[in-house]
Amino acid sequence: MSMIHTEALVRRFRGGVIAVDGLDLDVEEGELFGIVGPDGAGKTTTLRLLAAIMKPTGGIATVAGYDTVREAEAVKREIGYMPQQFGLYPDLSVEENLNFVCDIFGLEGEERRRRIDELLGFAGLSEFRKRRGGHLSGGMQKKLVLASALIHKPRVLLLDEPTTGVDPVARRQFWEMLSELHSGGTTIVVCTPYMDEAERCNRVGLMYEGRMIVCDTPAALKRMLPGVVLAVSVPPRAMIDAEQALRRLPGVLDVQAYGDRIHLIASGPEIRPELEAVLAAEGIKLLDLRPVPPRMEEAFIYMIRSRGS
Amino acid sequence: MRTHASNIIRHTFAIARKEIWHIIRDPISLFLVGFGPVIMLIIISYAFAVEVRDVPTLVLDLDRTEASRELIERLDATEVLDVIGTADDMSGVERAMDARMARVAVVIDRGLEAMFPAPSGDLLGMVAQLAALAQVGDRGLPVSYIVDGTEPISAETAIETAIKETNAFLVERARALLDMLPSSMQNLPEVQRAREQLETPIALEVITHYNPEEKTLWDLVPAMIAIVLTMPAMSVATVIAKERDQGTLEFLVATPAARLAILTGKMLPYVLIGVFNVLLMYLAAVGVFGLPFRGNLLLYVALMALYEFACLAIGLFFSIVIPNQEAALWVSLMFFLFPGFFLSGMFFPIVAMPLEMRMEAMSFPVSGGVFISRSLFLQGVGLDVVWWAVGILIYVGAIMLALSVLFFKKRIA
Fold it and tell me: How much is the ipTM here?
């Protein structure tokens, strides 16, 4: 049986906004599952529904075999939840924050000491025991919340944008922690706006307007992109004009500028002569043109754009 | 799944411990909750402790005798009354009262001196007349008082003083006349009976219990103790909103901490602070204001802790149903402070209120607190007298805690 299972899960807010609209999802035990999607797609609401801190307006969800409505408190014993905002007490020290969570879960004496030492070491916070939560850097705060969420060795981790606002080094460290937990068998669901993070997941679901429009392995998702991705290089001053010219080109599905290159999703490589002609008509010199492997980002932007139109 | 009792207790202490850390970490709020009430008690008590003095008093003396002059001197000699002059007739009295020159007027009709026997050879007749004085009653007295009621507190004090002095004057003058009889007559049964009769007050007298010197402060301080104990309840009114605002509520509700435990855990430190405050205020009342404490201190602290619990339960309920800190603070301020002053019986006696208002006042927990505090402090009574107020506090506390648990959802709205 799946560790997380939802069927036609719906959450409608007062005022008629439907944040989650008929979500069917299965996450297997030990899986590292990523949820990506634009702001307002329903990612946070989905995690809150799974964490049993929000009631669905329709459908069902079970986590670790417990129903999130009827057995909400049992679900809470099995999960570690990391809200998007800093979820711990800024006026309490690192150690006090962890002690508080130990108090809640009833970890005492030697067991508590060992667990706290272990988690502080794991999170790289051993030297900051006495520092107040509010005085930690953004990255350390996130690691502290993760450590708190791990006190009771949960079977399922639900992480809501755990690395937003964190510097790249801390982000990498955070993901190293997740990889370790993942190899230890913990089921992890993580919402993220970062495509490189999505790429680290076993499977990724793309949410858009409350629905999961695709859900598969990163490799399979990238293969869903029709046609090819071409990287076009033009002189820096001509970038804006070139981007606009390329958009008008028939057979081009999407155009994205990346600094000194323009990536375009085209139906096929045979578009080259037409492309050169369009740029020449604008007086833009084509410096380089080559096919590149598609990235997650392109796959998702393409999927969202094709939905939107 | 049922949450076991041991879990609830463990969670309560977990939350309480964390709440104590919060309070200790913030020195300003620590000072405010720890010492705010006793500071408020001292400041407000001084401000309200109005001793009535030198009420301007006008005299209309139609008797114009030695007796009437003696009475006027006695009244003037009191701290409360100050004789500012004499009027020639009633219209003069009316004018002075209308112009608010005088607050009290003493009208001495003809016949005051005549109540006392004139010196004569009939000594036994004199004794009989003096004995008869005791039966005059306040209707037979040729003295009346007019008082300006626009300031009820000073009016009441002034009139009580005037009545007391008049009584004392009559009794002392009559006794002095008895003393002047020849020593051979002092042992006569008629004289002794006359003395005995003069022991009882002649006119209607006000007898003040518990607070014989009628110090406003004595009455005020115990009531004020109960009112300032609502301050911790106002702090509690913001605790849930605060967790919500700083984003920690979302983490907390995603843990298996029981609802009842979260709420009682948040209240517990404030009950302890309340007990600390009660002890501190007891010391201030006795040490600074010189109040006598006549009850059982242990019972007093226990009942005040119960009262604090009832107030905290109400504050907590506000905290749950009002989603932002500022609004929660205002609602609790309006709920506790204003009715605290006017509905609790601190200034206006509850027994004098109309029935509906009396019921409203009785079910208001601050009234119970004021009643218990005054009863134990000044009267020295125990549970046999205050049991009904204790019942109301238990009832209000339990209902509000139950409502809080009912309304507090471990969910994000």
Answer: 0.85
